[in-house]
Amino acid sequence: MKAIILFGHGARDMRWREPFDRLAELWQSQNATVPVELAFLEMMEPSLDEAVSALSLAGATQITVVPVFFGQGGHLRNDFPVLLDACRAKFPAIALSVTPAVGEDLAVLQAIVDFGVRAL
């Protein structure tokens, strides 16, 4: 079974999480057969390990991690690979793959430009 993890930074203010919850709900409403979990680097739960564990228990064998970051900063270049490697070691039966940061995708950038145009 395939599944997806939407991976964000995390914040102390719980309101920061609200768009991530909406994103996960939107994903699930449009892709009902592909489970989705949120995961956060720090300050929020679940962690990447916890999200992989939950999806594993639900029967996932292939998990794609989507970093919901604007770009490849230090957290994605340094911290995230360590967490991902730990998950790969802990869950060897699960194929874990990763996409680029969402902010590096041209369609996402265009959506932001379109948003700005609508704001004018």
TrEMBL record:
Q: Which Pfam families does this UniProt record tie to the protein? A: CbiX
Coiled-coil residues:
none
Q: Does the keyword Cytoplasm apply?
A: no
Q: Which InterPro entries match?
A: CbiX-like, Sirohydro_Cobaltochel/CbiX
The UniProt keywords, alphabetically, are:
Lyase, Metal-binding
- The source's superkingdom equals Bacteria
User: What is this protein's name?
Assistant: Cobalamin biosynthesis protein CbiX
